[in-house]
Amino acid sequence: MNYDYDILFLGGGLNYAGAVVASKAGLKCALVEKNPAHLGGTCLHNGCIPSKMYLEAAETIRKAKKDHFSGSIVLEMATLDDEKEALLERATAAITKQCAKVDIVAGEGKLVAPHTVEVAGKKLTARYVILGTGSRPFIPEGIEYDGVGVITSDEVLNMRSLPEKIAVYGDGAIGLEMASFFASAGVETELIWRHDTLLRKAHP
């Protein structure tokens, strides 16, 4: 059977790295991503990278509160957000350049048959299809998410101003990072968790 591609990667998060390596090896590759401006996925745009920028800012605030410093320090969220966006823009441009030999297909892909992915009504075939469709924040049952009063880490990492107070639900790494950031930034912070211990799934 003749295929359109040797490998089709569904999802443009970390999948992009596999597509780059495979294309450099001479394989014909396609990368299906609903938002090509979001190449790099959650880790780059709404996870690891921006959260570490926020935590670095929080650490600066903590250090400035030590006894051998005087005065007050105020976190300018709009400036921090601008710096984050500039970094992500550069990183996305670098990833896009790396994918020069990969066919980037914009749209939501659906695996409709063996070796076959449909995007915007068009069917693409590949000898191998690699799924990397990513993840989304967990919304507990009974909580009505509206993106305004009830938000996820996605919205937190795009804030332009700080709230006076916030309740953070979650005892995993993301919840603790967010709670630590807000508390360090001077926000009245309450952490809510469901389990007996924090970071229950982490190695002891």
Automatic annotation (TrEMBL):
<dbReference type="GO" id="GO:0006103">
    <property type="term" value="P:2-oxoglutarate metabolic process"/>
</dbReference>
<keyword id="KW-0285">Flavoprotein</keyword>
<protein>
    <submittedName>
        <fullName>NAD(P)/FAD-dependent oxidoreductase</fullName>
    </submittedName>
</protein>
<comment type="similarity">
    <text>Belongs to the class-I pyridine nucleotide-disulfide oxidoreductase family.</text>
</comment>
<dbReference type="GO" id="GO:0004148">
    <property type="term" value="F:dihydrolipoyl dehydrogenase (NADH) activity"/>
</dbReference>
<dbReference type="GO" id="GO:0050660">
    <property type="term" value="F:flavin adenine dinucleotide binding"/>
</dbReference>
<keyword id="KW-0560">Oxidoreductase</keyword>
<keyword id="KW-0274">FAD</keyword>
<keyword id="KW-0676">Redox-active center</keyword>
<dbReference type="InterPro" id="IPR050151">
    <property type="entry name" value="Class-I_Pyr_Nuc-Dis_Oxidored"/>
</dbReference>
<dbReference type="Pfam" id="PF07992">
    <property type="entry name" value="Pyr_redox_2"/>
</dbReference>
<dbReference type="InterPro" id="IPR036188">
    <property type="entry name" value="FAD/NAD-bd_sf"/>
</dbReference>
<dbReference type="InterPro" id="IPR023753">
    <property type="entry name" value="FAD/NAD-binding_dom"/>
</dbReference>
<keyword id="KW-1015">Disulfide bond</keyword>
<feature type="domain" description="FAD/NAD(P)-binding">
    <location>
        <begin position="6"/>
        <end position="201"/>
    </location>
</feature>
<dbReference type="InterPro" id="IPR012999">
    <property type="entry name" value="Pyr_OxRdtase_I_AS"/>
</dbReference>
